[in-house]
Write a structure and sequence with these properties.
The complex is a heterodimer of chains A (767) and B (187). Chain A has 767 residues and is of the alpha+beta class. Chain A contains 24 helices and 30 strands. The radius of gyration of chain A is 33 Å and the shape is elongated. By secondary structure, chain B is mostly helical. The chains are: A alpha+beta (767), B mainly alpha (187).
């Protein structure tokens, strides 16, 4: 009997063909493996070695006389995530009795010093700091708190992460992670057949995929390429990549990469990757201060960061954490008593709203790009020390949140598009340090940064530049009479422009001081046309605007468009006696060894006549005393020059002003430019005022420049007077020796001192 | 607002303030750039100028003001000095400069300026540092800033003035430097 299968023996040719196909298949497979190998290794290398720069806020300097009250200090320590407890128990702990603080600081790297933990006592009251002593009782002139970590920047791809090195990670966290996610991590080669079989068994019993059986290495690979599809092809790819990774790198390297890479949740638009950031995000403390319960929560999150999100689903998160704690106890990683204690603890999440300042970080990124070499920034482990003042930032964020809630109920056109938006910047005028940036109503979201990118009509904020040009010309002073009368201007396109006052009234002859404080449009346009548009544009550029505004008569009423950042730059020069201080958000950058990259220097330059700047700022104090910004004077009770701004049809609401210590600008409007129904005084002013009211402001009180004398004049007539002669008297600066028409018997004496002579020389020799 | 109610000119206010302070014996150093050392006192540094008492019952409008001397007397010297915190930072900056750590010194002076932004002594320090760094333009700007802020104080005026002259010489502007040093207020 013939064996039937013999018929099926293929001819020699077919055998060759089969062999060829097999070889090709093997080659293709090898090629594919080789390809996957290079893909995963490239990704791994790129991630492993790119340690991002850590970004810090300006550390708070405590000294006797600092305006940090006891409650401010308390808030600051909490922001720094200091725990309340016995300071001898460890770093990052403080204790408060009334105004007496005892603290044990963390080991911390400043721009110029690596400081070991140190214990100090600080005494404060409701006015400020009253004493600082070291542990041995020595008085300290000055003590720096830890700089607040506000994020990290990859100069290349702009992601934000807190990267851990093997020594940063507590052993308990590593053991817990292995116990829960991959018990045989130290034994397998990237893929663990046993756990795969176990997973398949579990899946079969359940009739669906319930277990992945993935090793930490496989999870890491999956994280790199972020697809969640549970297909066989993807699983195979993942397995091959995991094995290739294991072939090239040590277990420790892979574990560290995992700890830095694993996805742990979502903070608005920011993905929370890695245990370092996870620890900051959920608990607000560095990873080495985590308690066993905190670690169990983070490890438990790996399985399903959104399902177990402790902020959204605290009950699920607690159950998951307690299950993890039980497994850890069963595995002998922690003792059962500890597990029981930890299970009873609350989740211990940090308060919402602390720390993350995307709009400010955005400015930092741009300033880094502007002022540092890209090659320098590519170095690993940089620390970037910024000028952020967390107290001012928090004040601005609170003001924005509170006031927008209120403005939402009164603004026009609310339902016709996106919500009312806002931007705010606070800076220190003398040095140009940016203290706070808010880029929109959601202060924690990345996205359109209006503080830096929203270029909008500035309305009457432009007027101080018009009046400064007039005062610098020498032909005008605060008492000069201007004509607030209707006019028509023929534009280059043949159209006729007929500006109007906001009140639609005409005021006739008014002194310059009143025209500016009450923001009169007709008087300003007449004045600006007389001075010439190029002269006004020059002034804006001298004060710090980095481009030439379009020379159009309507620019005199602020159709010129600027970002809040540009406005702050210009007002900084007004706040600073005519000295321009370049705005900066980066104080210094140091490398891994603490060596500074390149100091980002404070730069000042004379930009305008200090006499004329004094005169215009003196007039602007009337804005907050009796003009469009009087709500400010009524609440803050200090001398403060400021200006409201409202663009045509009430599309933009602005407020800008300064004290001796702060310059700030706020803007409110819609992104699509529809009218808001808000003026500068009803929209931006309350935001600005709420924020500034929380700061420790110093009054604006510069010395009167030499060529100027302070004189009392009548607000309504410009006649020289004395407060005893007229209830309408305002103090203005006018060029020394100016002959002012006076009310009878109310003249003022002139004087000249050595101070005057110095200043007049300074002015004369300015280049 | 307060400024409206004050009938004294600024130098008179200063004299009045000084007298008040001397009488009270509360402070021995002058007003704005001094650290508010006795923190217990509830008066913030800004108050004195604004809280100067209004003049005694307003004179009848017809009455002419008292004749005043044409040449105002020298305002009381400010006697600028640094608070202990800023001073300790200046000392630290000096030792950093001594070690050749110029960027570090720059950062330290930045910190000091954050504490006392308007103190001319710090601007003098900054001007010196810029000169050491080989940036005479910034050194000049800082020295001018110091002179503008501190012209009322003889020591500050002379120090800033001579520094500015040095900066000018460093830029080969000898004539300007001589002109500066010939100013009557420089002697």
């Amino acid at each position: 009997m013939k064996r039937p299968w013999k018929r099926w023996i293929p001819p020699r040719k077919a055998l060759y063909l089969l062999g060829g196909l097999l070889c090709a298949g093997i080659l293709a497979l090898l090629g594919w493996v080789y390809y996957l190998d290079s893909v995963v290794l490239n990704e791994f290398k790129g991630r492993l070695w790119s340690v991002p720069a850590k970004v810090y806020a300006a550390p708070t300097d405590l000294y006797v006389g600092a305006t940090e009250t006891a409650d401010d200090l308390d808030a600051e320590l909490r922001r720094l995530h200091y725990r309340i407890g016995d300071p001898s128990s460890g770093a990052g702990v403080f204790r408060r009795h009334g105004g007496d603080f005892e603290l044990n600081t963390r080991r911390v790297r400043f721009a110029d010093e690596l400081r070991a933990p140190v214990r100090v006592r600080v005494h404060a009251n409701a006015e400020g700091i009253t004493g600082i002593e070291a542990a041995d009782g020595t008085e300290l002139p000055l003590f720096r708190l830890d700089p607040l970590l506000i994020g990290s920047v990859f100069p290349v791809h702009g992601e934000d992460r807190i990267v851990l090195t093997p020594t940063d990670v507590p052993q308990l966290l590593i053991k817990s992670l292995k116990t829960i996610e991959d018990r045989r991590f130290d034994l397998h080669h990237g893929v663990d057949l046993r756990s795969i079989l176990r997973a398949i068994w579990a899946d079969l019993r359940a009739g669906r995929v319930v277990q992945g059986g993935s090793t930490l290495t496989q999870q890491l690979v999956k994280n790199y390429f972020l697809t969640d599809a549970q297909t066989f092809g993807r699983k195979l790819k993942e397995a091959i990549m995991a094995m290739r990774l294991e072939a090239h790198y040590t277990k420790e390297e892979i574990l560290v990469a995992y700890l830095n890479e694993v996805y742990l949740g979502q903070d608005g638009e920011r993905a929370v990757h890695g245990f370092g950031l996870g620890s900051e995000y959920y608990f607000g403390k560095p990873i080495d201060e985590l308690e066993p319960a905190d670690m169990a929560l983070l490890v438990g999150l790996v399985k399903g960061p959104s399902y177990y999100d402790p902020l959204k689903h605290p009950d699920r998160a607690r159950a998951r954490r307690n299950l993890v704690l039980k497994e850890l106890a069963d595995a002998g990683i922690i003792d059962p008593a500890n597990a029981a204690r930890s299970q009873a603890q609350p989740l211990g999440l940090r308060g919402v709203g602390a720390g993350y300042v995307p709009a400010f970080l955005d400015l930092v990124r741009r300033h880094l790009k502007r002022d540092y070499a890209e090659a320098d920034l590519a170095a690993a482990g940089l620390s970037i020390y910024t000028t952020l003042d967390p107290h001012a930032q928090a004040a601005a964020e609170r003001a924005v949140t509170t006031q927008l809630k209120r403005l939402d109920t009164i603004a026009h056109n609310r339902s016709k598009g996106g919500p009312l938006e806002v931007a705010m910047i606070i800076a220190e005028p003398t040095s140009g340090q940016v203290l706070a940036v808010v880029g929109g109503r959601d202060t924690r979201a990345l996205g359109f940064n209006r503080a830096l990118d929203a270029r909008r009509s500035i309305g009457s904020l432009v007027k101080p530049a018009v009046y400064l040009t007039a005062l610098e010309s020498g032909r005008y002073n605060a008492a000069s009479i201007l004509q607030d009368a209707p006019l028509e201007v023929k534009l280059s396109d043949g159209q006729v422009w007929a500006p109007q006052n906001y009140t639609h009234e005409v005021y006739g002859s008014v002194p310059l001081v009143r025209a500016l404080s009450e923001s009169m449009n007709l008087a300003t346009v007449r004045l600006g046309l007389e001075l010439g548009l190029p002269a006004v544009a020059d002034t804006l550029q001298r004060l710090g605007l980095e481009r030439r505004p379009e020379l159009n008569p309507s620019m005199l009423l602020g159709t010129v468009e600027m970002t809040p950042l540009e406005v702050v730059q210009i007002y900084t020069a007004l706040a600073n006696g005519g000295f321009k201080a370049r705005l900066r958000s980066v104080q210094s950058v140091v490398d891994e060894d603490g060596k500074p990259l390149k100091s980002f220097k404070l730069e000042v330059a004379p930009a305008a006549s200090s006499a004329a700047v004094y005169e215009v700022a003196r007039i602007m104090t009337q804005v907050t005393e009796r003009g469009t910004g009087r709500a400010v004077g009524a609440r803050l009770h200090i001398t403060m020059p400021a200006k409201t701004g409202t663009s045509s049809d009430l599309r933009d609401s602005w407020f800008a002003g300064f004290t001796g210590s702060h310059v700030a600008v706020a803007w409110v409007g819609y992104d699509d430019n529809r009218p808001t129904g808000l003026t500068g005084a009803t929209g931006a002013l309350p935001v600005w005022l709420d924020a500034m009211a929380e700061l420790h402001l110093k009054a604006w009180q510069p010395d009167t420049p030499t060529e100027v004398e302070d004189r009392w004049i009548e607000f309504s007539t410009g006649l020289a007077t004395e407060p005893r002669c007229s209830a309408d008297a305002v103090l203005v600066g006018v060029p020394r020796g100016t002959a002012l028409a006076a009310r009878q018997g109310c003249a003022q004496p002139a004087s000249e001192s050595v101070v005057d002579r110095v200043k007049s020389w300074l002015q004369k020799t300015l280049h | 607002m307060a400024a409206k109610d004050v009938a004294l000119n600024p130098s008179a206010q200063r004299r009045l303030l000084l007298a008040t302070l001397l009488l009270l014996g509360a402070c021995s150093a002058p007003k704005p750039y001094q650290m508010p050392v006795p923190v217990q006192t509830p008066i913030p540094a800004i108050v004195p100028k604004e809280a100067a008492p209004p003049p005694s019952p307003a004179a009848p409008i017809e009455e002419a003001p008292k004749p005043q001397p044409k040449e105002a007397p020298e305002p009381p010297s400010r006697g600028y000095k640094l608070g202990p915190a800023a001073q300790s930072l200046v000392n630290q900056a000096h030792s950093q400069i001594g070690r050749g750590e110029l960027p570090g010194a720059s950062g330290t002076l930045d910190r000091a300026l954050r504490i006392e932004p308007q103190n001319p002594l710090l601007w003098i320090e900054l001007a010196r540092l810029r000169l050491t760094e080989g940036d005479p333009q910034q050194a000049e700007n800082c020295a001018r800033r110091a002179l503008l802020l501190g012209s009322a104080d003889t020591t500050v005026r002379l120090t800033a003035g001579h520094l500015l002259a040095d900066v000018m010489r460093a830029q080969h502007r000898d004539a300007e430097a001589r002109d500066l040093e010939d100013q009557p207020w420089m002697n």
